[in-house]
Amino acid sequence: MGLFTRLHRVTVGKIEAFLSRFEDPELVFPVLVKEMEEQLEAATEAEAKATATVKHSEREVQKHKATIDKYGDGAYMALQKGDEETARQALDAQIQAERASDFSQKNLEIAQGSLERATLSRKRIQEQLAELRTKKEEILTRARVAKVQKKIQSTVSGTVGSGDSILDAVARLEAKIEEAEAELEIQASFTGEGTASASLEKRLQELSNEAEIDRRLAELRQKAGETEGGGQ
């Protein structure tokens, strides 16, 4: 069953899809025809083998039928002559021949089914090949049109995709600018606070220095006063 399924796997509906995958249908078409011709050859060979099997099975069935009749006649003749033992042996052989005949009959039915499928497969591929040859120009034209449409669609899709990419890039750039501006504002705020803090620190340091200067001047004045008092 699998063999016959594979033999007619290429259908006319798949031909255009097969052609559309290639750049030059003119070069592909002979390859496709050759493939179908090979499938037709294989299907024809399978049909011939199935036919031979059917004929062989038919001969086997006829042979067993003749054997059944022969042993039946022999059993009857032996019994007429009073040879019951020989008659029993003949009947036993007849039963064995009938069993073999049943087996051959089943094989014949299987062979006939295989032949039917092989013939159907061969006819189907033969019809498809004939249709392929008849509709060659139509199929090639449709394949070319499909290829052009696909190229146009690809170009349009590419343009839309590029536009989307540009818009995304602009959006990301705007976001970065806004982020940078926010950082500058924060830095400016910190810088302002830092300047005020530095001014305060400087002023406090100046006051501390002035206080220290005043303290030392006071000490010097006191020392100078003591010196003057001692000199008097």
Number of contiguous helices: 5
What's the count of strands?
Answer: 0
Q: Stretches where pLDDT falls below 50 for ≥5 residues?
A: 1-8, 159-166
- Tell me what portion of residues adopts beta-strand conformation: under 5%
Distance between the termini: 142 Å
Q: How confident overall, as mean pLDDT?
A: 75
Name the shape in a single word.
elongated
Indicate the percent of residues in helices. Answer: over 70%
Protein structure class: mainly alpha
- SSE succession: HHHHH
Radius of gyration: 54 Å
Please give a structural write-up:
- Helix 2 (12-20) runs antiparallel to helix 3 and helix 2 (12-20) packs across helix 5 (136-231).
- The protein has a domain at 2-134.
- The protein has helices at 2-7, 12-20, 25-80, 84-134, 136-231.
- The longest helix is centred in the last third of the chain and has 96 residues, at 136-231.
- It starts with a helix and ends with a helix.
- It is mainly alpha-helical.
Concise summary:
This protein has 232 residues and is mainly alpha-helical. It has a domain at 2-134. Helices cover 94% and strands 0% of the residues.
Observed structural traits:
232 residues; mainly alpha; 5 helices; elongated
Q: Topology, pairings included?
A:
Blueprint: H1 2-7, H2 12-20, H3 25-80, H4 84-134, H5 136-231
Helix pairs in contact: 2-3, 2-5, 3-4
